[in-house]
Write a structure and sequence with these properties.
The protein has a six-stranded mixed β-sheet. It has a six-stranded mixed β-sheet with strand order 9-8-7-12-11-10. The radius of gyration is 18 Å and the shape is elongated. Helix 1 crosses helix 2. The N and C termini lie far apart (about 50 Å). It is built from three helices and 15 strands. Helices cover about 15% and strands about 45% of the residues. The chain has two domains: about 80 residues, duf1285 like fold; about 90 residues, Roll (duf1285 protein fold). With about 180 residues, the protein is α+β, with helices and mostly antiparallel strands.
Amino acid sequence: MAEQVNVNGSTASLIAAAKSGGKGPPPVHLWDPPYCGEIDIVIKRDGTWIHEGTPIGRLGLVRLFASVLKREGDRYFLVTPVEKLGLQVEDAPFVAVDFEVADGDITFSTNVGDLVTAGPDHPIRVELGPDGEPSPYIEVRRGLEALIDRKSFYRLVEIGETEGDVFGVRSGGAFFPMIEAAALE
């Protein structure tokens, strides 16, 4: 088990790093600080952030932490220029809670306020679970994905189209396969 660290100072530096940037998330992809241990934060599949067993109820604080979230391989970290803390993510760190279609582009909004337009740099993918249930995702930034919520996924299916043997959606000049077309018959 990874070492738990006292994060009182770390939390303050995470907040300071998140607040120091201008618009948009800080350039965490440029930061490579030393690993300092684990922080007792879990991001649940439904997008709820849990700290020491208690949901973080302040959306502003969740957004601050989300802005300094980084993925390395299959691990997630909160990073500042001087430290890196591991945390647990049950599925994807974000949830796409709605979308709009305009001029052939599908733009999603997430539970932490990000807006992302599906396209080659922000692909949509669908993974089938062991029970055959689809889990759709969109890449938000640098390997961080949002699970597309059920109502939005159903709406995507309504605007989908068949291309060859595959059913999917189009956005940003790209086609994103969702399921074999034969499975819809």
